[in-house]
Amino acid sequence: MKKWMKWFLPVMSVLVLVMSVVFRYGVGPAQAQETLNGSYEGVAEGFGGDVRAEVIFTEGVISEVNITAENETEDIGGQAAVQLAQAIVDNQSVNLDVVSGASVTSSAVLAAVTAAIESAGGNVADYQAEVAVGEDEERATQVVIVGAGGSGTAAALKAAEAGLDVIIIEKNGFVGGNTKISSGFFAVESSFQEEAGVETTVDEAVQQLLEFNNYLSNGPLTRAIVEQSADTVEWLDSLGMSITLQEETSQKAHEGDPYKAMSYHKYDDTDAGFEALYSHLNDLGAELILNTTFTDLIMEDGRVVGVICEKADGGQLTVMADAVVVTTGGFGGNQEMVEEATGLSIMTSLGVPNNGEGLTAMESIGAINQDAVPFLHGAQLAESEVTQDSDSETLAGYSNSPLTQLLMSPLLWVDSTGSRFVNEDVVYDTAFWANAAYAAGGRYYIVVDEATLNAYTNGTEMELSFAGPGPNLDEGDFVALAEQAVEGGTAYKADSLEELAEMAAMDPTDLVDSVASYNTMVENGVDTDYAKASESLLYGVAEGPFYAFDCRAVYLGSIGGVRVDEKLQVLDSQGQPIPGLFTGGSNAGGYYHGEGYPPYEGLASGFAWTSGRIAGDTIVELLVGEGE
């Protein structure tokens, strides 16, 4: 999931910068340390690794800041790094707020620049001036949308296409949200399927979804989303979000299923697609405001009439509107809310770190949080703090090492007590894999012996899962890689199972019994506990040394949210629409139920787009109808 990229700011004119500082402050940084000249470096720990700052001084003035954040995500951390570096130059200060949605990377940038100042022999206090807060601003429009992911973008498009005045507010410096990092869209009865000879029906898809959710989800909403899914995917394709029906699934468990696999409409290029959609919105007269964080809803006489936001410069932006759409993307970046919803603190978070501000604001004015939960999606090798102060790699994550071939294999898995807990073939289905890991407490261990590692070194016959991003298929010495993981704190090694259990805080008896039972199943080719396929019973755990690889359940933001009707109007405790308030995507409840994500590829992305489109249509019906 991580992209490798270096971020550098353009070279600035020293003369202009010096004049800028003099204009702002009357002199350079507190008593202008004119003896500071040249280039100095600082390093700090970021989200994915080291963040490095090169700070160039000219007669005490910070004339240039270059950030190298190659391990940070391109759109989130990378954008924050560039934005903060420029702000440091503009303000001659490291006393800046972190960039919303990228707090870890932001803090690392500020710490790295501070380290560079110290390395130069400068007085950090001279570069901690208070930055002036921007002016407050008030605006008015017909429709204001907070959150520019798939749902917010779709709502904006429908409103703008109807001729309504639209303002879109996004806290990040880019559009797309978690939808931008997804890869496809669930839809049935589409022209894409018709051309490919794939037969699906709305009725069957609705029935399957309701049954999966034990009929605890919202029937009318489910039907509305599924019925309009084909129109939505074809509408987006016509606007430039180029889409192709997938020909072959990456999830073995879904092969041959027209609903789980062949209803997956894949984006050809999400960056180019969102660029096309926002070019169209611009042509329609919609206004996009980036780097501005939604904080509160405004209510008057029982109706939502606007929003309050914080601008990048700290000033307040108030937007009054006839209709408000809250599509801020859930709460996946809010660890406190995740722990409250799951009771777990050890799972791994990926995706855009939305903080739940939309849900909190809607609940504060009477909306009901129906079913918001983390969006469980696969598992990965555990992260570790052991190596943060060393040169050793953790070999953690999805696909940054060949060790992910073990992660993506149905080997022996045990829970934190040392007990086997599932048919490991769930690794072939991203949703069920995540559910199993969550049910085990958010953590499980892959247990192997050295003979198994040697088999992987020589090229395993085990069929690997390509669910999610899939494994790293590079060749490698798996014993050496395992030793590196042990050193990095993401795996344990011992000559006996009892010792291995003690290292990993398992129950020795449980682990020994689980391994003995599993070895018998491998020998007989029959899983008598969980019915794993015989072809997955390739490797026993027979002779030490033994290894246990720490794995964690992954969540990609959150799903579910406040109670809505099939028109995406937000409802109060009496089941009545709150006038003026609409939502969609990861803030809207009723399409799922509980932690278990239905195993239909592209379901969350499809819901985001279609729910936003329905919200937009509802607003057009209400506002244009009122004006006739």
From TrEMBL:
It comes from the Bacteria. It catalyses: dihydrourocanate + A = urocanate + AH2. InterPro entries: FAD-dep_OxRdtase_2_FAD-bd, FAD-oxidoreductase_2, FAD/NAD-bd_sf, FMN-bd, Succ_DH/fumarate_Rdtase_cat_sf. It holds the Pfam family FMN_bind. It is an enzyme of class 1 (oxidoreductase). Its cofactor is FMN; FAD. Keywords: FAD, Flavoprotein, Oxidoreductase. Residues 46-120 form the FMN-binding domain. The keyword tRNA-binding does not apply. The keyword Ligase does not apply. Its EC number is 1.3.99.33. This is Urocanate reductase.
